[in-house]
Amino acid sequence: MKYRRFFGEHLFHPLIGAVLFLVVWMILAQSSEALPGPLKTWDSAVALFSDPFYNHGPNDQGIGWNILNSLGRVGVGFGLAALIGIPLGFIVGRVEFIDKMTSPIISMLRPVSPLAWLPIGLLVFKAANPAAIWVIFISSIWPMIINTAMGVRQLPQDYLNVARVLNLSEWKIFTKILFPATLPYMLTGIRLAIGTAWLVIVAAEMLTGGVGIGFWVWDEWNNLNVEHIIIAIFVVGIVGLLLEMLLVKLAKRFSY
Amino acid sequence: MKNYVQVETVQMSFGTRKGVFVALKDINLSIARGEFITLIGHSGCGKSTLLNLVAGLLMPSDGILLCADREIGGPGPDRGVVFQNHSLLPWLTCFENVHLAVERVFSATEDKAQLNLRTHEALELVHLTHAEQKLPNEISGGMKQRVGIARALAMQPRVLLMDEPFGALDALTRAQLQDELLKIVAQTNSTVIMVTHDVDEAVLLSDRIVMMTNGPAATIGEILGVGLPRPRNRLELAGDPEYMRLRSEVLRFLYERHAHPEAA
Ligand SMILES: Nc1ncnc2c1ncn2[C@@H]1O[C@H](COP(=O)(O)OP(=O)(O)OP(=O)(O)O)[C@@H](O)[C@H]1O
Ligand SMILES: [Mg+2]
Fold first, then answer.
1. B261 lines ligand 1 (CB under 6 A)
2. Could you tell me if A23 and A90 lie in one domain?
3. What's the complex ipTM?
4. Is A170 part of the contact surface with chain B (CB cutoff 8 Å)?
5. Model's pTM, two decimal places?
6. What is the pLDDT of residues A181-240, one digit of tens each?
7. What is the CATH number of the domain that holds A147?
């Protein structure tokens, strides 16, 4: 088990998985005309990433711009959802009659595919970009409302008793008790939201066009550049993974 | 003041899944200013419930509670509470937990430095200066309980309500804190109501021991006056015949007349 020590415990198993994955991919590529193999894809990726930020007009930009544009849309849609969803979650969790009023609506709207909202966005905003942001917004807002509200509802009575005995002001109760107690739940909501948002952006951009990783995939499909499509899949996966890791790290920092 | 805290024909019922559960019934008690009262009784008889009623965290189903001739309508910083499960806020350090209470009571009259000093002093009193900057999850159960005590003491409440404050402590720390408490109480002349399971603790600390019958519908079974002179010294008391008599009196109540149903 010399190799095992060499690569370290953490890398050993994932490495086997990666090698196996590449082998399967190679075999599949051998038996199919259309599917490029790992080596060909790698060469194409090296070429692509050697100049990620070129700009030849709106329909031909580097992969870096495409990723940043998609991230920007997710950021704005997601940020707006947080801005509205988190306070709404606090209200829903704290005020019982609002909870009862809104919960059937939320339960009904939550399972709707975010893309179904795209036509509404196009109709209202009459432009592709805000419509894509709208879709991100609508897909991110549900997990944020639901998880924040759950955090508020699960606030232990003990903490509220402390607040009552000390006779804390509403503001102190919020900053010292309600907010920190709810934070881990909020972060769960944010994590779920950003996961879906990143899932949805690719599909939304395919439909709306513009600069972005989703539209890029669609464009490369029209060019029949399969290597680039495969690269896009990896890029979307890796960026999603990085976002997730970032938020898990953040959540760890705030768990008690 | 003779009747500083008054509990008059108080009844407490809880709505449960199986219907109404009467926890306390016909509780009458009046406590003089500066008096030290302990509540003793078997687990589940309603000691915490009675304490929470005085704290104002619960409202009685029937009857009335008064503090300084005013009806207790809710909790307030004039009645400091040490909770049975310490109830520290896990995201605040020990210092911040105590500071939150200090700030609430004294920020109108004192500046920042004085508030900090008060917080330091309160933690020093329970020997936790070294753990000031630690989070509650980083300290032991007994230490958490001591922070809870510091928090309540730091508010300098007129009435101190303590729910088994020394329950989680080892015998040595417990004795030390009992002595400390006696000193503080003598100094501040605060009125104390303390729940305990420990017969020795009850006799050592109290002016009167309130012994409760078993629930449901628990009530006060007997009140035992402790006439031992103060300041009390635990070593001298150990062989004192009056101390022995009081101790066996409580034991007899708990284990003969109101033995726990399961134990009987
Ligand atoms: N919120 C509540 N709802 C229903 N029943 C309750 C509630 N709070 C307390 N009780 C019941 O009232 C009784 C008294 O409870 P309490 O906590 O006051 O007991 P206790 O004497 O403090 O016990 P321990 O010594 O174990 O702390 C128990 O039977 C308990 O089940
Ligand atoms: Mg109790």
1. no
2. no
3. 0.83
4. no
5. 0.79
6. 999 999 999 999 998 899 899 889 988 888 888 888 888 888 888 888 999 999 999 999
7. 1.10.3720.10
